[in-house]
Amino acid sequence: MQELYLLSLSAASLGFIHTILGPDHYLPFIVLSKARQWSSNKTMWITFISGIGHVGSSVLIGFIGIALGISLNKLEYIEAFRGEIVGWLLFAFGVGYTLYGLYRYTKSIPHSHLPAFLVPKKVRELQHLPLDEQEDNTKLTPWLLFLIFVFGPCEVLIPMLIFPAYEHSTWGMLTVALIFGLATIGTMLLTVYLGHKGSRFVRFKKHERYVHLLAGLIILISGAGIVFMGW
Question: Which InterPro entries does the entry link to (predicted)?
């Protein structure tokens, strides 16, 4: 019982630490919520679902691996491989969104040198529409985030499941997985919520056309950090 208590405490601590030290766990949600003007509820919901996919995939791999008797080294190799995949996925998403940001930027200025009477009314209205009044009808972005986080491994979780598995304690495995998941997802939600609320004080005003480009660059840097620097 004492060992399970200490393991649970470690699971909570590592769930918090690995999330805080991994900016890829929260930066994409914060910058996209600002760029796409998601509401707080929508931002929190997308973060929560992505967190479930992030933790749940590692829990599933861990439980299946332990049930099949796969060694810890092989399970850690699987998680490391998934880490490489998610790094490239986030990097590719950052590249794609940066290109989208460039497209949005160039689209917002093509008629800026023309007299107002030569610019179509709908184009003028779009150009002068404040960012916080633009509606985001895109449903693809949240799903892309979710899929990326499903591939994202929780490398520290599987080793913690080995001890209760060795003790043949299914309850212990479930407890450790649950505590780690709550700590990870809770930290994601809290960090994203604070970042989302704080971003509302940042007003771009005349530079609103840069917001998608900036979001793409931040995600790109985050992905590049994982791929090339092992963040």
Answer: UreH-like_TM_dom
